[in-house]
Design brief:
It is built from seven helices and six strands; from the N terminus they run ββαββααββαααα. It is mainly alpha-helical. Pfam families: Myb_DNA-bind_3. This is Myb/SANT-like domain-containing protein.
Length: about 190
Amino acid sequence: MDEGGSNDVQRRGGKRDGKGTRRSWSTAEEEALIQSLKEIVQAGWKCDNGFRTGYLGVLEQMIRKKCPSSGLKAVPHISSKIHVWKKTYGTLLTMLTRSGFGWNATNNTLDAKDDAFENYAKSDPFARSLRYKSFPFYDEWCEVFGKDRAIGENAEDIVSASCNVTSEPILIPLSTMFLVRTIACSVRILSS
């Protein structure tokens, strides 16, 4: 799909028509969605068990303002994209808590030892599709989909909160730094 927002749908097999089941998102549309998701989270649309009723309609309106010619609808386009992003985020988060996995922050890619990856992929076949992909929205996914993630001006990461409690610097080996980042994605820490 081009940046102009053509509404043609790309079907598997390369045929184009107006009745397909598959839609390709442009980079601008994905960026508009992630920005809109962050905005509704900050506006209080996220609850303990997910988003409040009606959030898809709000997202559709927000994206329509940011990308007027996209033609994105709450159902199926936005709900499908969010479903895929949640599934991808959950799989990445699970892998990153296991031995043999790491994160390349420069390329936003998963680093994994071959044997660790193969063992994990046996239990989660979806993981195979994630091996060499880049995930530029991973940090945003942590904010939007992470459980009990603190947002706003009182938010602290785990290292800052620990330093405030002990009033002494904490030295963390570089090998465990990613684990701290992953935990910080999932833990809510509020400053006093």
